[in-house]
Amino acid sequence: MMPPEPEGDPLVLLTGSMGVGTHALVALDRQFESIWSTTTEPVIAQMRLLWWSQALSALDDSPAPAVPILQDLQRDVLPRGVTGAMLATWADPWETLLDPAATDAERIAMLDRRGSALFGAVASISGSTGPGVAAAGACWSLADAAQWSSATSAHRAAWREAARTRWGDAVAASWPRTARPFLVSAHAALHDRRGVGPAVRTAGFMLTGRTGLFDPL
After folding, report:
1. Whether the predicted model's global pTM rises above the 0.85 cut
2. pLDDT tops 60 at residue 6
3. Helical ranges in 127-179 per DSSP H
4. 188 vs 36, 73, 135, 178, 181, CA distance in Å?
5. What CA–CA distance (Å, rounded) separates 215 from 55?
6. CB atoms within 10 A of CB 192
7. For 134-161, what is the mean pLDDT?
8. Are 145 and 162 in contact (CB under 8 A)?
9. Which member of 30, 42, 94, 113 has the lowest number of beta carbons within 10 Å of its beta carbon?
């Protein structure tokens, strides 16, 4: 199994409450994030993304190789309805983000897709679905990238603004009890702080589903 997430991570409530498989999905997202943020040669990064995409697709038909993330995904995620072929598409947004010719709109769309895919997969394997999950995932992804990315300040500012827009979409939705950790995680990332936010406000939302309990933007 993947180790527990550090307490300071915006996804700590998500990984702590959504059950088996969530850690592996988050670890896969972080693997792609690491390729994007640490590989200095785009061609090498693209080769690494291709390897992961092919390895994920192969999980549907073959035993996982001796790579812990792949083994955890095959054991804990694939039996719950998320296929390796679906996970292989997670490489696509990062390929766009590696492209220096990509427009601001394309980068925002790909970060949106990244978060929606991660939160959607977690919702699928945990049964914690809700109408605002995709928007919350997009908000988290955009805010997360704006926080840690080495992109230009202009790009980060655009991503933060897009995250606020997606936050608005998320809070406009209804939030079933089991899906509420998704919005808490988005809120923690959007406010540029780690952890699950002020305990009283978070507990109030988790109990009632009232999004107005969160700090205003």
Report:
1. yes
2. no
3. 133-148, 153-171
4. 23, 26, 14, 18, 11
5. 42
6. 12
7. 89
8. no
9. 42
Distance separating alpha carbons of residues 216 and 191, to the nearest angstrom: 10
- Confidence bin at 196 (pLDDT 50/70/90): very low
pLDDT at 1: 33
Extract the tokens encoding 192.
């540029």
**Residue 19, Cβ density class (10 Å: 0-12 exposed, 13-18 middle, ≥19 buried):** middle
Structure token pair of residue 37: 């943020």
Q: Rounded to whole angstroms, how far apart are CA atoms 147 and 140?
A: 10
Nearest to 21 by CA among 2, 36, 49, 42: 2
Which residues have a Cβ under 8 Å from the Cβ of 58 and sit 6 or more positions away? 84
Nearest to 196 by CA among 217, 216, 182: 182
Write out pLDDT tens, residues 61-100: 999 999 999 999 999 999 999 999 999 999 999 999 888 8
- Measured CA to CA, the distance from residue 52 to residue 39 in angstroms comes to 15
CA-wise closest residue to 31 among 81, 78, 87, 83: 87
